[in-house]
Structure formats: structure tokens, C-alpha cells
Amino acid sequence: MQHDISKLHDQVQQNSLLQKVTEAKMDGLKKGMEAKMDGVEGKMDGLKKDMEAKMDDLKKGVEAKMNDVEAKMEGKMEDLKTDLTKLLQEMFTNGERVVKETHDENKRNVNYDFVNSNVELKTHHRPKINIRKFDCKDLITWILEIKQYFDLHNVQNTQKVRIATLYLEPN
Question: Which of 20, 46, 69, 105 has its CA 20 to 30 Å from the CA of residue 30?
């Protein structure tokens, strides 16, 4: 029985030693994994900073290009407005000359038409026409719309350019 007890005691000591060795190995593996995880976290932080820096550079580049495009568009819009104003002035000035020539021939008819148009103003309601602002997309249609507006409202030739410029889209 003494022999059995001593055998058991030896087995307990061996198990205890094995447990301590296993714990030491586990601690070594744990520390190794923690070190590797710290290395991975460091690399991830570095990659994150690199990506943020690249994104900032991209944002600055895109903003600079957008500012360039905006500046170019503003210049082109000003040129277009100037050209459109000249075109409208030319169109309405030519129309004014034609009207003067025909009115001189038939002054009575012109005055009669003017009286009729004033009577019509008092007795008939004109439909409201919404003229869209000119946005540089469809010049011909816009000119036709504004001409119809002028015709419907009997706008004087001297006022046509001033009214038309009100319907130009700002920068």
C-alpha cells in the first residue's frame, strides 16, 4: 500500500510538473500572439493613416479641378450673356426698324390696332405665361418663347431687351 501511495504521489508530482510546463508554454504562446497582434495593429494604423492622407490629397485635387472648371464656366457664361444680349438687341432693333417702316405707311391702322389692343386689355384676361430663365441649353426655343410672350403682352420694342435680360440665368 505504501508503494501505491508513493506511486500516486509521483504521478501527482508529474501531473503538477506537466501542468506547470503546459501553463508556461501557453503563456509563451499567448505573449507571442499578443506581440503579433500588436504588430498587426501597428501595420493597420499605418495603412489607415496612409489611406487618410491619400483621400485628403484626392479631395484637394478634386476641389482644385472643380474650382478651375467653375472659373472657366463663369467666364463662358459671361461671354454667352454678352453674346445673347447683343443678339437680342440686334434682333429687336431690326424688328423695330421694320415696325417703324410699316407704321409710317398706315398710321391710321396702327392707331386703330393700338386702341383695339387697349380695349382688349380691359375686357379679356391674358393667360399667365411662365417664361423659364435662359440656362444656355436651348437658345432657339427660349427665343421663340420670349417672342410669344412679347407678342401676347404687346411689349414695346424699347422694353424687349430689358425684359429679356431679366430672364437670363445668373452665374
Answer: 46
